[in-house]
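User: Quick sanity check before I run a bigger batch. Here is a single chain. Can you write out its predicted 3D structure?
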Amino acid sequence: MRAICRLWTEESGQDVAEYAVMLAVILVIVIGTVRLIGTNANNVFSQVGSQMAN
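Assistant: Done. Predicted structure follows.
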């Protein structure tokens, strides 16, 4: 617990916190993009598969 408090009060601890927030934001954007692209790609492949079956 002391180590966390020390990191929180030191400037290097603030850098770590900022990097953690940036990483969290980037991960949210990447996960959202992958889910969106994955859904759209699934729809496209389903349409192509149904057209090839006809």
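The two ends are 65 Å apart (CA to CA).

User: Great, the batch can go ahead then.
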